[in-house]
Amino acid sequence: MENKLERILPDDLMKKYDYKPFETTEIGHPIIQRTAPKVRVSDGDGKVTNDLAKIVKDNVKDGMTISFHHHFRNGDFIFNTVMEEIMKQGIKNLTLAPSSLTGAMNDVAIKAIKNGTVTNITTSGMRGELGDVVSHGALETPVIFRSHGGRARAIENGDIKIDVAFLGVPNADRCGNANGMYGEEAFGSLGYALMDAAYADKVVLLTDNLVDYPNAPASIKQTQVDYVVEVDKVGDPDKIGSGATRFTKDPKNLKIANMVSDVITNSSYFKDGFSFQTGSGGAALAVTRYLRNAMIDQNIKASFGLGGITKPMVDLLEEGLIGKLMDVQDFDKAAANSMKENKNQQEIDASWYADPDNKGAMVDQLDVSILSALEIDTNFNVNVLTGSDGVIRGAVGGHQDAAMAKMTIICAPLTRGRIPSIVKSVDTAVTPGSSIDVLVTDYGVAVNPNRKDLQEQLSDIPGINLYTIDELAEKAQKIVGQEEPLNYTDKTVGLVEYRDGSIIDSIKEVKD
Amino acid sequence: MEIKKTAIAGTLESSDIQVTVSKGNDGIKIDLTSDVKERFGKNIVKTIEEIVNKFGIENINIKAVDQGALDCVIKARTITAIQRSLGTSEEPDWEVL
């Protein structure tokens, strides 16, 4: 069957999983029934142990769904420690439901797939070797890709039913009160893990830093936690995040960032009290620096900055140019550290951040979002998941969610080496074009034709060269030449959910 | 035209292509390594072959390590490698250029 974006979806799997094809970005006002976890009653004593093997043996059974968070990013030790123990005990057919999978988890995840320990995966994304083996058909069932908001929705309504959540924390007390702010491996916000803590039947904290009871401020609460497992080391602090996110020196990226700033400051959204979110790509990050100057010049302050927080945003907060930072995760140490220093940096969970099925997520209040893309097509559909060789090498992340902003700007160079970023049809549609408003490239700007208002606001502005997106796609193709189509088999290796749970696209096994 | 000695042009920098030509005895042999082989492999080989044909070379071994170079770069590096091999860099074959 085909969905509204004319993406062909596999009939058998759509039926088997009872999925609906993507139709619209409008969520409406449906009544949603949420699920609740089972609770094994405790007075809080006796939760501490250093016997991970026993915890695994008592709680993880064949066929269960287990989860992890990715706040330790490439410095994560928890996933590997727990998965090795699970494999040692010969447990099979698990569904892996982490908030995302980072490079540090790749080798162990591949091993677990190959020996049948893991047979299903749902995640925000995957990269490197893991993306490669999955794209080459290592799993029998397709990986379900969900945005951060989509995962929160799926956990709340029971589409993801987590049996056991293994959550690494840089501190915890003996009853399970924990936060992400203190300790050697502090990473700041626990935003994604808070969903697992609230909805998993069993919550296992793992920490190398047992602190006095009661631990405060607590993000994960003792009311949610079954066990506190002491381990040698939860992660490598040097790999959790760089000291401060490095500013790009790439002149292409700087040019794009400057132009994005021009687009924002010349739009009707640039007024006192506006709000914004930036992605983690090179150009998207640099925008904050240009925006800062315009805010000072025109005496405009932002009410809030949202999403993944970086040092440039913290600088704006400390300068009084942003009122609040609403923080679901921290991309660098400066941002992580700022969470405990600045009372105006509020930790938010993934549901509060981006869940479509609640009583108001922050992305719906967002004025401007600045996001990256691997590819964008002439219908403004964006791919952030599969690379130019068709292999999975990215993550949905908050892309679909942040695109709910009143003005969503995609920044991408026209070409990366010989690979065009602006194409006739994206390899994998992740974020629908109807939620994208402006594309900024190093060659010029294209406005979504359904945004006549923005078209008008941005015309005749020095420094902003407006093109149609078809013109930009033609320009790109003229430079790189005609690409050959990718070769795929009929096997589906991934299904991409839109944030509402409908299917926006499928990913096929690559044929080499 | 005969390739006599091995010659090289280009670097391994991003958006460049390193072309090494050497004596061959079995037609035009091109060994291509490229990150964009799936999308542009045939294109790159065709571009290199066209240059070789313009020189009228019948036997040649070419090793090309591509880092996403555009057509104009591929042509330039191939021409330079062949001229260096033929020792004609100082008196280029203008018809080919």
UniProtKB/TrEMBL annotation, chain B:
One of its GO terms (cellular component) is cytoplasm. InterPro entries: CitD (IPR006495), Mal_deCO2ase/Cit_lyase_ACP (IPR023439). Keywords: Cytoplasm, Lyase, Phosphoprotein. The modification O-(phosphoribosyl dephospho-coenzyme A)serine is found at S14. It is found in: Cytoplasm. Pfam families: ACP. The keyword Cytoplasm applies. Its main location: cytoplasm. GO terms for molecular function: lyase activity. Belongs to the CitD family. Covalent carrier of the coenzyme of citrate lyase. Oligomer with a subunit composition of (alpha,beta,gamma)6. This is Citrate lyase acyl carrier protein. The lineage of its organism: Bacteria, Bacillati, Bacillota, Bacilli, Lactobacillales. The gene is citD.
